[in-house]
Amino acid sequence: xxxxxxxxxxxxxWRELLAGEPAYRARQLWQGLYEQGLAPSELSTLPAALxxxxxxxxxxxxxxxxxxxxxxxxxVKWLWGTEDGVALETVLMPYRDRVTVCVSSQAGCAxxxxxxxxxxxxxxxxxxxxEILEQVVAARAAAAPRRLSNIVFMGMGEPFANxxxxxxxxxxxxxxxxxxxxxxxxxxxxxxxxxxxxAAEGLQVGLAVSLHAANDELRSELVPVNRRHxxxxxxxxxxxxxxxxxxxxxxxxAMIDGVNDRPxxxxxxxxxAADARAHVNLIPLNPTPGWPTTGSPAGRIADFARRxxxxxxxxxxxxxxxTGIDAACGQLAAGHQPETPVTVGPRRRRPRAxxxxxxxxxxPASGPSIL
Length: 371
Ligand code: SAH
Description:
By secondary structure, the protein is α/β, with parallel strands linked by helices. 31% of the residues lie in helices and 17% in strands. It has 2 domains: 18-55, no CATH class; 63-325, TIM Barrel, CATH 3.20.20.
C-alpha cells in the first residue's frame, strides 16, 4: 500500500501525526510544505528523529517518469508515476505575462469524449489532494525565478467527478500556496450538480465549461455526458454560476473541421453564450490518435470568431501550446508501458515513436457516426 502524500492530510490530521510534539511543529510543517514546497524529510527545521518518523507515514506520491520540453514555445510536460502504477501528466506553459500550469484531477477520465486523448484512454482513478498539489508544487519550483501565476484544471480528468479532493486542493492552492482565486480556473465537461455546488463555495475561482456544440444532437455525439446533462441545463447552470459568484463563465469550443465550425454552429453558440453571458474560448482541435478528424483551418476559425463578435459575444482564440510534445489541449493520455506498441490512428500528422509516452487505446474500427 502506498503512503499518503504529505500534501494530503489537513491541519487536524497533521496534528494527530504530530502527537506528542510541541504545537509549533504543525505550523513549521505547514509552512515548509506550502511556502517552501519541501517534503517533511527535507525540513531541516524539524529534528532528524521526527523527520524519519514522518517519512514512514507520508511520502511524496508522484515520481517523475519523463520530462519533455517543447523548444518552440517553452512548454514543459511531465509524466508522473505513482506507487500503485497509474500515470498522469502536467503541463507548464510560460507566457510573456504569466506562467500557467495545467494540472490533472484524475488518472484518465470516464467522460469518454471521442476527440480527447484522455477520454480515449479511459478512466483509472481519482487523484488525491496530495497528488493534485504535488503537480502545482513541482510547477512552482520549475517556474522559478518566475512566479507561477495561473492554475488551470484542464489536464487529465473531470474535476467535478473528483469534487471533494479538487475543492480541497483549490482551497489549499489559494489559501496556502498563495495563488489568487481569480487565477485558478476549473474546467468541466458540464456536470450540472458540480457547477451548482461549486458556485455555492464562496470562492472567486474561474469556471470553464466545455461546450463544443450548442445543439443536443451534435453535443451528445461529441460529449456523451450531454445525454445526462443536456445543453439547456448546462447553460442555465452557467448562468447561475455567474449570478452567484459574479464571475464570468467561459465556454470552451474545440474547432473541429466540418463538424462544429459552420456559420450555423456559430449562430447557435451565440444564442447560448448570450443567455449565460459567457465568454467563448475557441480552441483549434488538436489531433489525437483515436479521432479521425482534425482542427478547423485558421481562416474558418477567424470567420467563426467574427460571426460571434458580430453578435456581441466576447471571443478569444486559444493559441496552441506544446503541440510538438503532445502536451496541447486534449492530448494528455499518459501511460507508462513504453513496451506497449502505440497504435497510430488515422490521419495522424506526426509519426509517434514507439517509446513515446503512450499506451493509447486503439482507435475504433469505424469512425464516429457524425462523420
Ligand atoms: N474534463 C474537463 C477538463 C479537461 S479537458 C473538461 O472537459 O473541461 C480541457 C479542455 O480541453 C476541454 O475544453 C476539452 O474539451 C478540451 N479538449 C479535449 N480534447 C481536445 C483536443 N483534442 N483538442 C482541443 N481541445 C481538446
